[in-house]
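Recall that a protein's primary structure is simply its ordered list of amino acids. Everything else, from secondary elements to tertiary packing, is in principle encoded there. The following example makes that idea concrete.
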Amino acid sequence: MLKHLFFVLISVLALCAPVTAYAEEAPTSEDFPFYKDIIATVKIGDNEFFYEDPVPITNAQTITVTYGETTVQNIIDQTTSPDSQKYRRVGPEVDDEVGWYFWPSHRSGWRNRTTVKSSDVITTELFGGDKGLKGVGAVYEYIGKTTIKVVDKDGMEVNTVDLAEEFDIPYTSEYPCWCYEQYKNGQWEISWTNRTSLLRKLCNPMDNSLNLDNYRIKLTNHDIDDEYFSCNYCYKYIVTKASDFDTLWELYEDEKLWDNEISIESDIDLSSYTPTRALLPFDNYTEMTIDGHGHTISNFKGNYPFASDYCAYGNQTIKNLTIDNFDIALTLSDGRCDTKEGENDDVYVLIMGDNNDISNCNFTGKVAIEGEEGKNYIPCLGYEHLNLSNTTVSINGKVEISTGIAEVEADGSIYVRGREIIATEDVRIYNLMGEDVTRLNGMLSKGVYIVKGSKATKVVVR
């Protein structure tokens, strides 16, 4: 009996004791505005374009996300993928699984993205605290039509070009230029578009309104802008007569000559016309291209270098040009020529901007140099970094390949190109005062610099 009462008492006390309940926290659900479409980065050939909606909220839908339960695939299932007839998904892949890019906020301009897998579960950490528009996307390759016709002046098809690839319409004297045309209002009209803008319209997976059959390339003559001396279609500066060389200098001095192409489109004899300056204004213009299209400039005479006035700048491309029977007289005391001391009494005198790429050219003529007595002056097209291909140079009856002296006290992993130091690894550049001037690379002043990477190297910019 007592034993029975003991168990009863214990049972009553147990009912009176405080009880602590342990329950799992229920997942929290929230609504977020998402893009209705997969946000696509589209590749066409070597080009990669990113779709960006100027008014993104208009293409949004509300998706309910339950933390700890909703997966990336659940969100993908509620969005629209690009047309499979035109786009093929090519990435990203994550851990051998289908991957996606996730943008936690549109405010970043879609720059800040996280790579996720289809099976990843949505967490508060992934979404962050931003309640704004979000997106999920991937990389797609455009597999639709990318070719357009090339037609002559009568509209007859000559060939086709593929916008997905870099193309060059061959220059001919009959058709020195070409432009894009668009079929509008029942007729073909000049279109101020270009290859890049067409590709951008073509690859936009949210807008399939572009019909590439409504565009073509038409072979034509130049449309010269009298003020800027350039073609309104190809933007090249067109040279056909002797006085054009002075016009180019006027544009240069008025800052109306920009990095582009000078196109020489006829043979020019300068026997009875001497340009007032150097032949062509290279000075300060990097990456200008001069294309002679197989033409010849002959009998240039003057006391300036034939392709640079002050000779300090270069990085030009010269191609398909003959400069024949030039006769140049240089006076070093006027300070217009760049010189470098060589061995013994050798002095190299630059007669063209340095660091140039020259192909399919022939330069023949005389150069007289007046300087310090007893010095051996050597006219040269460039110093060490001169790239000549299929080109002959004959100065004062002597055939030259190239002349120059070393610009860099370094091994082959570091060299100087103009005012820029080039390295095969990540480096920092310091002046002799110890100041970090890496940000100025490409605009460095003449002098000695210390380049620090896996080792420290002294580099001379001349």
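Residues 163 and 195 are 6 Å apart (CA to CA). The longest strand covers residues 317-331.
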